[in-house]
Amino acid sequence: MAARRAPPGGTAPESSSETPDCQTRINSLKYILSKKQKTPLSARGHWSMWPAFASGQTILRNHKPCCAPEERQSSNKQALLTFPKPPYLEQLESYLRKELQSLDLTKKNSQELKLQPYREIFEFFIDNFKTYKPLLTAIKNEYEVTLAYQKKTIRALEPLKAMVTTVSEECTRQILALQEKEKDEINTLKQEKQHLLKLINNMTEEKNSLQTQVEHLQTSIAEEYVRYLNESGACKLLLAKLNDMHNEQLDMTRHQVQDVKGEDVVKLTLALKIARQDLTKAQVKLNTMIADYGDVVPRTDFESLEKKYSDLLQEMKTLQKDFDQLHKEYETLMEIHRETAEERDNFFTQLQQVQRNCTPRPNWVKCSEVIPGGADRWGCLAEGKTSDQLVDVLLEEIGTGALKEINVFPGWGKGDKVPVYLRHEGEVKNKKLTKKDVVNILKDVWKEKIALEQQTGKQSSLPEFFLSYLRKKYGDAAAMEWSYTLYENMRLCRSNHVLSSFYDILTGKVGEEQYHSQNQLISNLQKELAACDSSNSGSLTSKQFSMALREAFPLKRKESVEELVDASRYKLDSTEDLINYISLFKEDEEGNAKPFVAKLRSQYVREKQEYLRQLKNKLGDLTEVNPDELKTAFCAIDPDIDDQTLDIYIGLVYQVQREQPDQEVVPVETALARLLAGDVRRVGPSPWKGSMTGFEEQ
User: Fold this and answer.
1) Does residue 498 sit in helix, strand or coil?
2) Alpha-helical runs (H) found in 507-594
3) Does the residue 68 lie in any domain?
4) Cβ count near 21 (within 10 Å)
5) What is the pTM of this model?
6) Which domain holds residue 561?
7) 18 exposed, middle or buried (CB, 10 Å; 0-12, 13-18, 19+)?
8) How far is CA 173 from CA 159, 161, 162, 166, 239, in A?
9) Distance (Å, rounded) from C-alpha 376 to C-alpha 214?
């Protein structure tokens, strides 16, 4: 095959990374172009740095050092145009024009034919610029590889274009068929509507007729009621007359008996008077004895109490000595604590100074310039959050922005290790939901699941219910699209409590009972606050609010209660003493809670971690633990724990033992991890709460 004339010094290097198909196309183009007349570009000439090749240097006239760049550029351009182009540049341009004019641009591959002259011009430059030849060669090779890759991609997408056209036509045919099918149903429904309207008119007339009958019956009943009322009054008068007549008859009979037996009545009256006098004397004597001997105890009881008193006195003296010794130790520990606190404060001051010198605080206000919604939305997102939480917010914004650009998700397959709600092969369409839509769907899932469990009395698995809910609401075909879209949104949005808690329970990181327990805590607190609000105004003073918190959470420390009070007064005037407790539990449209509820949830997690830390310290150096050892440790750190709660905690740890009863121990770290995932919290006060100092508790 004939080839074009190479530039002086050798043939231009070809890219070693080009694909065979691309190389074949290039060779074919070279063959087509080789039929044209060759040019004398390969003749090596003298290189000229145009326009500086002219002899001597030209000083620009009327040059002002401080003039504008545009004026200097125009004056320089006028000066430069006075010099001719280099000979070699003119040869290259002439060669390029001739080659382009000789091409037939009506063919299908006209763009590739047009590219070949430019490629040869670039090869001439590579050969002549010896100093920059490696760099220019690398640039040319990368462009060739990129072109080959793009061509391959275009060829791969051409069948898809045809397939999309075919699918579009098929969908159009199906839509037309469905419209034809629905015409008959619409006509049937219209006829049924007319029939129902006639029935409604008939029933309305019947209702009016019945209403008239009811009014007539009501009038009749009223007349009968008046008549019966009159008869009842007459009956009562007759009964009163009969009773009077009967009483008169009894009085007459009694007078007749008294006339016959007068002596017996006098005797009976006298005997009754004497009996009453004797009863009065006996009552006085009884009261005197009760007053004199009421506080007297038996001698045996007195001696027993005296012995018990001496034993308690001796025990009190022993405890007093122990108390004095503990008081001395307490004072020593307090002194150590004060010294340690001073040392800690010094170290903290040094740490802050080092942090200020080494790591400057980021200017979070800059984020409002790139976040959609501007400064207002960034202010809502950054409200009450730490720097670490703000980093999470930025990652969520970046992730959700990238998620909206994705059209399809790759399927995870149908293996046993894949969750049931993600078992799908092939690509899945991205529904591109907003955070508000995701929050509303997840809340509806919880609502439906709780209603089903209350109706059936059985607890269902969240992953299986989640998939059945999507299938029921959106159909089997679209269920996976909604499932993948919701899963990706939950995975990215970790700062939103609704999304993060649902994701942790769905993936098995946290037990479902923990979610219900937190909601129950919030519900109980709302009831307690409402009970303290006697005026139903929706507001409480700081003192009433603090008392309600102590009643709802008797095991919380004083510092925790103060944190909740401070969180409830967020964005309130310091002089304002009323707290609107109803607004503390409101959420925005994306499900974000107020700082008070967020602080309540963070304290729940922190208290559970502290409880499990005490359990770990009680287990000591054990690497594995059996049920009896775990029960003993729980009873030691929480003496008020009941048997039912203890069995629930043991069941959380030894969930594997239900399937493998022979296994009696589990690693301590595994036990703590399972307890952390469940709803574990203290039942009674800590046995060390009264004896431990603040330093020891920390």
Assistant:
1) helix
2) 512-532, 542-552, 558-568
3) no
4) 12
5) 0.48
6) 517-697
7) middle
8) 21, 19, 17, 11, 93
9) 65
